[in-house]
């Protein structure tokens, strides 16, 4: 692992991560970032993994020892690290970056890890299988299309939980509006029911004027 980078250096990396590039270029970027990812997001004071895990933990009513959780766009496994501390034990993860998956594997917390590029590949998970599904950090411009939440719904058990995060900064506001519109439409169709919405101002250090 390289020496810890300054906030300015990390900021440039994060801004590059949100550029709208082709899927192959996105994968290469995350593969190259994998070794330093956790060190960089620590510098960024990135709290989304903890906040998502804590939100799911507060709502979850089932048996944590038996529940099977799918971590979508799992990266290096930050979300699952928190969930494990909160008593959950069974985790599957998918990500489009083999480099990120290799780092997630080193945590020893996942029973199953698969490479899948959301938006270009169908989510290769059993229908109505998971007690909870999380998608943290990827629902934004330049990452995955809003339509992937249909797939999250399909693989979640009836009565299960889906937890997702998005950004409310100016560059992502149109994406957020589209996401919320689709969420409402799915709720009107009876596919799921909204339990809670949590708005957080200080979830990471701002990297641009629009944050």
Automatic annotation (TrEMBL):
Transmembrane domains' residue ranges: none
Classification via CDD domains: AdoMet_MTases (cd02440)
Entry GO MF terms: S-adenosylmethionine-dependent methyltransferase activity
Segments forming domain Methyltransferase type: 70-163
Domain of life: Eukaryota
The protein, known as: Methyltransferase like 27
Species, as recorded: Erpetoichthys calabaricus (Rope fish)
